[in-house]
Design brief:
Length: 228
């Protein structure tokens, strides 16, 4: 387990515990918290995350904010192991051994819900989501860039490019593998990466040279990393 990352008072007492136990998303709007108060608390939460885990928090928040579909907790556990600034980008040793640590990393701004209709799973999937729409509003706002949580500020194009490169970097590990059902059950982020990397690339506005190079490397492999 990760050590305690946030030592302040939770944004909403019992929010994560109640969500995990009931499988229902607890809406912060139902608590009638004024927007300016929520934004102030978000800044306090993120500025209190230790430097050691800030990059993990940024990756999780980035994916939850701009993913093409909801992400399971097992997918998020692998998201933290992708660093597009290194080669190879994906480090299997950095996967969260306890997926629920994703909640600790991001403190009270994420929750877990249950998806009973996931056709790719034999049992209901636990989905990680932002706790309230105002979390995304603050992350992409101009206001965040002027405060203590500026490192978590996000721009649409840059985030889609980062996710596209993350997907490509993740797929590069499959040098000799086809993504059959057995592979997809072991590598939880494989299906998302194969299905949506092009979509994220198209949303970058202008594809970067780095993304082009990674895509060329992937497409030139003898064993294509595509879902069967």
């Amino acid at each position: 387990m990760l050590k305690t990352l946030y030592h302040g008072e939770p944004l909403t007492k019992g929010l994560l515990r109640a969500s995990a136990e009931t499988g229902r998303a607890t809406s912060l709007s139902s608590l009638r918290i004024p927007p300016h108060f929520r934004w102030g608390r978000y800044q306090a939460v993120w500025s209190a995350i230790s430097e050691e885990y800030s990059q993990y928090a940024l990756r999780i928040l980035q994916w939850l904010t701009f993913s093409a579909r909801p992400l399971s907790i097992d997918e998020v556990a692998e998201v933290v192991a992708i660093d597009v600034k290194r080669d190879p980008a994906f480090d299997h040793n950095e996967i969260l051994s306890e997926p629920l640590d994703a909640l600790n990393i991001c403190s009270s701004v994420v929750i877990i819900t249950v998806d009973n209709d996931n056709k790719w799973e034999d049992s209901p999937s636990r989905i990680v989501a932002l706790a309230h729409y105002s979390v995304k509003e603050y992350l992409v706002s101009d206001r965040i860039w002027t405060g203590k949580a500026a490192k978590y500020g996000m721009r649409d194009n840059a985030c889609h490019d980062a996710i596209a490169r993350s997907c490509l970097g993740y797929l590069l590990q499959f040098q000799q593998l086809e993504l059959d059902l057995e592979c997809l059950s072991t590598f939880r982020l494989a299906r998302y990466s194969a299905e949506f990397w092009i979509s994220h690339t198209q949303k970058t506005g202008e594809q970067t040279e780095e993304t082009d190079q990674i895509a060329i490397r992937l497409c030139s492999k003898k064993s294509s990393a595509n879902v069967n």
